[in-house]
Amino acid sequence: MAPTRASLRRHRPARNTGRTTAPPPCRCCGRGGPRKGLRRVGCRSAGDHATTQADLAVVQHRRLARRDGPLGLGETQFEGGGRRSALIAFAELAGGVLLAIARFGRIRARNWRLPGDPTGIVGGQSMRLQPRMFVTLNRIQHVGRHVLARHEPWRVLVAAPRRAALQRTVVDAPPQPPPRKPQNRCMPASSVPASTHHQTVILGAGMSGLCMAAQLKRAGQHDFVILEKSAGLGGTWWDNRYPGAHVDVPSPLYSFSFAPNPKWTRRFAAAAEIRAYMQGVAARFGVNAHLRLGQTVLDARFDEATGRWRICTAQGSVFEARFFVCSTGPLSVPRWPDIPGIDSFAGKKLHSAAWDGEVDLKGQRVALIGTGSTAAQLLAPLVQRAAAVTLFQRTANWVLPRIDRPYGAVDRALAPLPPYSAAVRAFWYHLLEWGRRGFDDGTLARRAMLRTAETHLRRQVPDESLRRRLRPTYALGCKRIIYANDYYPALQQPNVALVTETIAGIGAGGVVTADGQHHQADVLVCATGFDVQHALSGVTITGRGGKTLADAWADGPEARLGLTVAGFPNLFLMLGPNTATGHTSTLLFIEPGVRWALQAMQQVQQRGARSIDLKPAVMQAFNNALQTRLKGS
Q1: Best CA proximity match to 191, nearest among 317, 312, 321, 324
Q2: What is the pLDDT of residue 132?
Q3: What is the radius of gyration, based on Cα positions, of the chain?
Q4: Sheet holding 518-520, edge to edge
Q5: Coil, strand or helix: which one is 412?
Q6: Among 289, 414, 431, 624, which one has the highest count of C-beta atoms within 10 angstroms of its own C-beta?
């Protein structure tokens, strides 16, 4: 848009003073300096001042955020600038303060305050007896006096003979190797020694692995390494590079409590921004020196004689450590659909969790399988690039509007202030916890969410026959809710076809449905999520007596508090069974789990013990009680 006469007049020299007012920043790069219209002199593109690939993506995302919907499909962005942006920012501040005051006394009385959350509140309504994953968080407490001192759930192998009455097996503790000096850079696979000794080995460099590493550094424990199979830090955010990828919870909740991010550009951050945030956290706490990239762990075995884990990688490296932290999380193994003939497809096959950015989709016929959150984010970019898109829907999903907006000058000025950031975080935390009550029958939250979903569908889909195909038939909350403003508009584009018939098979030239129709495709895109039941299937983890974790989980994954498994000493799981939920940020579960594991490590070290293990009877009682509470949910 060309500058108006009034806007140009504001930057002319002030009469009789010779002074000029500062012009607004450049629309492309955001920097000041001499101007030519609305752009800085010498600014040719959004990437002129980007120093890294992540910075370039963030700058590009800021440019897209200025449009009326990043995809030009009539998306309602709840955009607000100037006075409106300031009002929204102060409303979030006031809401967070009022909600925190209103619920502080009740939650404190119930002792649901956990470490890792700046508001001091992580429990709340999510602890009701509803779906399977909502019952663990309020059980994660401080270890110290509350758990380890009781000796009930734990078997502590102590090296000192004076503690023989408390142990089942007495083994002399081996001498600990001297601490290694941290490296000055990330070590690729080719630079890793054949065998290295450490105090802790962390598997995975995603959010949970980064949190574990940062907390170890804050605790003064520097003898650890992070083994990551990918070429960079990020975990699932490194792998998920499909077009349109972004987080589906508000950005203030998607940063660590000990490292808030005041640089979010909008309420729902894009994947590039999240990767940039993770890189900033790693640099701030000195984690990069502990990264070992390109290391694919194949086998981890606990040596009962030495009380240490021996971890072997596909690259031939061997790592020995006292503690082994599995932070791969449930979103690490892509799940391909089990459809007959999928291997016979002659075109290009893409998975949302292993996206190949070099594949040119322009002018291609694309078959998209899946209608979850990932598919909802991916559909609109595909519609813009491909000649034709066929979306195969097995089950319709509940779709609610994404209350997104770009952060303006007022937000950027207030975000670095700890009271403001804490209040906004508390506001969104309580709002999402209230939304979790929408899964319960007869609640006000459920009625409000159902009405919002129906209104959203009617406003964006005028065709009644299409609305019937997009209206879910199952109860709200049984599957993850989709928050999207461009999903319904993208489905109504002229080059999109919605197919609800069951897929019978896949041939060389496309997809065949149960009604006999053959849908031709040049590219097959599978947005079918991750294999959460077999997240650690690629690693053979062997504990006491040669028992593997796969054998222990033959009837289904189970772990006390989602963190420890009986028979696997000094092993800690991040985002293990029955932990993360689908209604709020996973970071609210990662941080208490990390603090819990770290305190357990410190207790072992302070007691001079060799290892710490969970008693089988305690884990069985915990799981029986868990399943009893979940009956009928």
Answers
A1: 317
A2: 32
A3: 26
A4: 503-506, 510-513, 518-520
A5: helix
A6: 414
